[in-house]
Design brief:
By secondary structure, this protein is of the alpha+beta class. The protein contains 9 helices and 13 strands. The strands form 5 sheets. The protein has a 4-stranded antiparallel sheet with strand order 11-12-8-13, covered by helices on one side. Strands 1-7-6 form a 3-stranded antiparallel sheet.
Length: 287
């Protein structure tokens, strides 16, 4: 996209800007869908990346700047509506906060989860570069008394609102359980979710090291106190031999590839959790 009307306003973390652009486009296409996604409390069927400044003197939305971003959708309905609109009915310009930009190039690709699973390898070690701020949510659920005669569906304790804790650390269980949940909801080729998460709980994947891992605070608007915290950096993982399973290792590889498309953790719709992974070659492991 090329900026045709610039803006000098402070931007904050640009992933929030991209999410706003997506909702504005969806509002034109299907307003009820846009509103339902905006108010969604469950797994979102799309993710984004922050703005990438392909050409800009000051990495700003100045006139003439070339910017790009990615929208990844996990729903056929959403993919179809966005693609059709941007190809057949693209507007003359798109608002990006108080700037305006015109679409000069559109690239589309598809990822088939079935092929990701079929072509995955039994990996033993890998690294993940967390490119944008990443955090996970750990739910704290109230446990029901084993001998309680009240049905679970009627228990007042279980009906109370579930609490969450934010985890700004590369917890392998939270990361891969989250990816497995996304896969289970949106992919057409399934694996045994329960067995996989039990394997994770047994220590199927561990952190073996990290380099320059840091926690960052990013603001939705540069002039307001609304912020989020996440970690960034490169983390090394391995699959210990005492819990190693070829089947689980292949699922892990498929989820890693899927995660590069879906993002990981919370706030995926605002460009959080963008990752790139690298499998450690066998010769490096043996050497």
């Amino acid at each position: 996209m090329q900026v045709i009307k610039g803006s000098s306003r402070p931007m904050g973390f640009t992933g929030f800007i991209v999410r706003g652009v997506v909702y504005e486009i969806l509002k034109v296409i299907d307003k009820p869908l846009s509103e339902s996604l905006h108010n969604l409390k469950r797994l979102a069927p799309f993710s984004t990346t922050p703005l990438k400044f392909e050409y800009s003197p000051n990495s700003s939305l100045s006139e003439g700047s070339i910017i790009s971003f990615r929208i990844s959708t996990l729903s056929d309905e959403l993919s179809s509506k966005l693609t059709q609109y941007l190809i057949e009915n693209a507007p003359d310009n798109i608002s990006i906060r108080d700037a305006k930009a015109k679409l000069i190039e559109l690239m589309a690709s598809t990822v088939e989860p079935k092929k990701l699973l079929e072509s995955s390898e039994p990996i033993e070690a890998f690294s993940v570069n967390f490119i944008t701020p990443t955090f996970f949510r750990r739910s704290i659920a109230t446990k029901c008394c084993p001998a309680c005669p009240t049905p679970r569906t009627s228990c007042p304790l279980l009906k109370t609102q579930r609490r969450y804790r934010y985890v700004a650390l590369p917890d392998p269980y939270l990361m891969f359980r989250g990816l497995a949940r996304l896969w289970r909801k949106f992919a057409d080729k399934h694996f045994n979710y329960k067995r996989y998460t039990e394997w994770l709980l047994d220590g199927g994947i561990t952190v073996s090291g990290y380099t320059k891992l840091k926690t960052v605070r990013v603001y939705e608007h540069a002039t307001t106190p609304k912020w989020s915290v996440g970690f960034k950096g490169k983390v090394y993982f391995n699959l210990p031999k005492d819990t190693y399973s070829i089947k689980m290792a292949k699922i892990t590889h498929a989820l890693l590839r899927f995660g590069e498309y879906s993002n990981v953790g919370g706030n995926r719709t605002a460009g959080f959790g963008v990752i790139k992974h690298r499998i450690k070659p066998k010769k490096e492991e043996e050497g």
